[in-house]
Amino acid sequence: MSGGDMLDFEIRPNPAPVSAVERAALLVDPGFGRVFTDHMVTIRYADGKGWYDPRIEARAPIPMDPASAVLHYAQEIFEGLKAYRTADGSITMFRPEANAARFIASARRLAMPELPAELFVESLRKLVEIDRDWIPEGADTSLYLRPFMFASEVFLGVRPANEYLYCVIASPAGAYFAGGVKPVTVWVSPDYTRAAPGGTGAAKCGGNYAASLSAQAEAIEAGCDQVVFLDAVERRYVEELGGMNVFFVYDDNTLVTPPLTGTILPGITRDALLALAAASGHQVVERPVSFAEWQADAESGRLREVFACGTAAVITPVARVRHPGGEFVIGGGEPGRSTSALREQLVAVQRGDAPDPHGWVTHIR
Ligand SMILES: *Cc1c(COP(=O)(O)O)cnc(C)c1O
Predict the structure, then answer these.
(1) Gene3D superfamilies of this UniProt entry (predicted)?
(2) How far is the CA of 246 from the centre of ligand 1 (A)?
(3) Which atom of ligand 1 is nearest to the CA of 204?
(4) What is the 264 CA–ligand 1 centroid distance (Å)?
């Protein structure tokens, strides 16, 4: 690496990588999060020493002491983004600097050390370069990158740990919706909330997901696909799904999403869609939407479309909303035209099939 104080990665190629034949077989239908590449990134941190020993090495189990702090007090944060193989065979990543910035914000909230943004982006670049043959070819496929960091110090006292491990693993992902985008039914949880003011709702930490699983199980029990959370204070305003932000499209072409007041995860897909929607003639508004308003506007037909968004599925149409008092349908239950158009526009930019006026795409080699 050029550029002063950036750490140099030590590259230790996997001595026993998966064979080309076996890899091709795994890439036929990788699904999501089941297949992993040959390598991983590790960077260590210790108080007084800073970040040290950055490596690209064979993906392998991480030895862990049973008293490692993360196992007891959940000091853990993560990110998720994708690398794509474009039509001309080159490789891109979508907005890795935005993930780096969010990783720093999450680290601050969890009293963890901040990994410099350049080191974060460089770690992704290095992993994608060495594992480039694992990026699937074909529409809607990608290499999902999972950076994460946890408290590795061996200590049971309750305080911020003084040792951490940062890792990146990569997982080839097939088309999220094999056979076309499938609208989902969401469950409005009467019992559970996701995030309270002053809590960790805006941080991407494993603990938020742990706390959402009972609510997600309740949604499945109720015959739904995903849970949607209301605010923790008034139990009135729609916040987001367990791992996706939510948008409302009205018949006057207004696009509405709840504002980032600290209890909602600031999605990078959300941010990109706000920009794309504004550029394609939608009026874009960040404001609270109450559950009562949601139901009334769906029933009157004023609310035309609802969708959820995030890196994994990009955009998922919401067709139906179920709650303890009954259910209602959005726009006849079919994916709406703004939902489909925004999805196509965003995917085209991500895959290098459309111009990139915002400078969102990072090219790799
Ligand atoms: C990651 C995440 C999102 C989506 O963020 P993207 O950057 O768009 O992938 C939304 N909500 C929650 C709770 C998340 O963890």
Answers:
(1) 3.30.470.10, D-amino Acid Aminotransferase, subunit A, domain 2
(2) 10
(3) 15
(4) 9
Under a CB-based contact definition with an 8 Å cutoff, are residues 199 and 209 in contact?
no
Of all residues in the chain, the percent with pLDDT exceeding 90 is: 92
The mean pLDDT of 82-91, rounded to a whole number, is: 92
Atom number, ligand 1, closest to the C-alpha of residue 201: 13
Written as six digits, the tokens of 184 are 């989902």
Pick the CATH number of 184-350 from 3.30.470.10, 3.20.10.10, 3.40.50.80, 3.30.930.20: 3.20.10.10
Is residue 1 very low, low, confident or very high in pLDDT (cuts 50, 70, 90)?
Answer: very low
- The residues pairing with 230 across neighbouring beta strands, listed in sequence order, are 238
Q: Whose CA is nearest to atom 13 of ligand 1?
A: 243
Phi-psi label, residue 33: left if phi above 0, alpha if psi -120 to 50, beta otherwise: left
CA–CA dist 342, 337 (Å, integer): 8
Ligand 1 pocket mutation pick from 245, 260, 346 by most atoms within 8 angstroms of CB:
245
Each residue of 24-38: pLDDT tens digit?
999 999 999 999 999
